[in-house]
Design brief:
CATH architecture of the largest domain: Up-down Bundle
Shape: globular
Distance between the termini: 37 Å
Largest sheet: 4 strands, mixed
Order of helices and strands: HHHHHHEEEEEEEEHEEHHHH
CATH class of the largest domain: Mainly Alpha
Helix content: 40-55%
Length: about 400
């Protein structure tokens, strides 16, 4: 389908696809097997300016928005989800600064993120605060003109590799979610260290580590916004990045379908290519339809977000929920078409199946997305009854 992309958007998509075809696909199995962080590929992305597609021009970026980010992420995900999440997590870490940072903070940190000189990361999740994001226990106490942070963050993408971290910590536990504050923490700050690199089911090329804060000293000028805005900034950030998860799902599913289609055209059973069997044709037809529906949703929501509406939480949640469920379904079907070969590491769909599951979990589980959507539906129904 023609989604009426601008010439600039077409060039961005074309560039990301070229990197995927030439640099990611040839090494994705090796990166997965060795659990190796894709520094070389990310450097290529940096050299061609992809890290800045969604950062304003005044801070060294291209000035694009959610749509441009989704285009890049979709293409990189066709190659390897571990690579694409390493790329995408940097913008996730940058968003709180974009949304709530001071001009000084933006000028200090965003140009290095936009150029890819430094990676960023976002730290909210803890051992006992996953879906219950308001249950975070990492604490920040003000002492003079600085804050002392103590606690841990868990499963942080780009942990240990990134230089810049946006960290949500409690400055007033009595206020619950309104007592959370966002901080910019730099790698190398006193009292800031990392746990071991996690061994994961999928996205093995990405780095996932625990962040450890032991009397970590952070200057007051590193508070993003003001005290108490941390949870709000986190939710506003997720509203803008969840369509990117949908784009990952679309890219991954597209790759799985293409692999299954190519295999079905070569594989013979009963002296026929299995592509000639109606059962296989119907599976492929359903896969293609689901992917196109998900792509249309992601693009529509991304464009809607870029139009600066007041509230888009429901649409953003949908753009994460539907595509990630779709990707899991499509990849399972791709493995089925491959049959026993699909279960072997020699073929790419085995890795795709392992990678796909995380899409239903990170940046808010799909059960949480359904909660968000349902809550907004209830609010809309109440407004209609009031005639608003």
């Amino acid at each position: 389908m023609d989604y009426f992309l601008t010439e600039e958007q077409k060039e961005i998509k074309k560039l990301a696809r070229r990197i995927t075809e030439e640099k990611i696909i040839p090494v994705r199995a090796e990166l997965d097997e060795k659990e190796e962080f894709p520094w070389e590929i990310l450097k290529i992305c940096a050299d061609v300016g992809l890290f800045g597609v969604s950062i304003p021009e005044e801070y060294g970026g291209m000035g694009g928005g959610c749509m441009e980010n989704c285009l890049v992420v979709e293409e990189l995900s066709r190659g390897c989800l571990g690579v694409s999440v390493s790329y995408a997590a940097s913008l996730l870490g940058a968003y709180p600064i974009l949304l709530g940072g001071t001009e000084e903070q933006k000028r200090k940190y965003l140009p290095d993120i936009a150029s890819g000189k430094k990676l960023a990361a976002f730290a909210l999740t803890e051992a006992n605060a996953g879906s219950d994001a308001q249950g975070i226990r990492t604490e920040a106490k003000r002492v003079g003109n600085k804050y002392i942070i103590n606690g841990t963050k868990q499963w942080i993408t780009n942990g240990g590799e990134a230089e810049i971290y946006t960290v949500i910590a409690m400055t007033d536990k009595r206020k619950g979610g309104r007592g959370a504050t966002a901080f910019i923490v730099e790698k190398g700050m006193k009292g800031f260290s990392f746990g071991k690199k996690e061994k994961k089911l999928g996205i093995r090329a990405s780095a996932t580590r625990e962040l450890i804060f032991q009397d970590c000293e952070v200057p007051e000028e590193n508070v993003i916004g003001r005290e108490g805005l941390g949870f709000i900034l986190a939710m506003r950030t997720f509203d803008r990045t969840r369509p990117g998860i949908g784009a990952q799902a679309v890219g991954l599913a597209q790759a799985a379908m293409e692999a299954a289609l190519d295999y079905a055209r070569e594989r013979e059973q009963f002296e026929k290519k299995i592509i000639s069997f109606q059962a296989i044709q119907h599976m492929l037809a359903d896969m293609a339809t689901k992917i196109e529906a998900a792509r249309a949703l992601v693009y529509a929501v991304a464009r809607y977000i870029d139009s600066n509406p007041k509230d888009f939480s429901k649409a953003s949640a949908m753009a994460k929920l539907f595509p990630s469920d779709m990707a899991m379904s499509v990849v399972v079907d791709a493995v089925q078409i491959f049959g026993g070969y699909g279960y072997m590491r020699e073929y790419p769909v085995e890795k795709m199946l392992r990678d796909a599951k995380i899409l239903q979990i990170y940046e808010g589980t799909n059960q949480i997305q359904r909660n968000v959507i349902a809550l907004e539906l209830i609010k809309e129904a109440a407004s209609r009854r009031k005639g608003v």
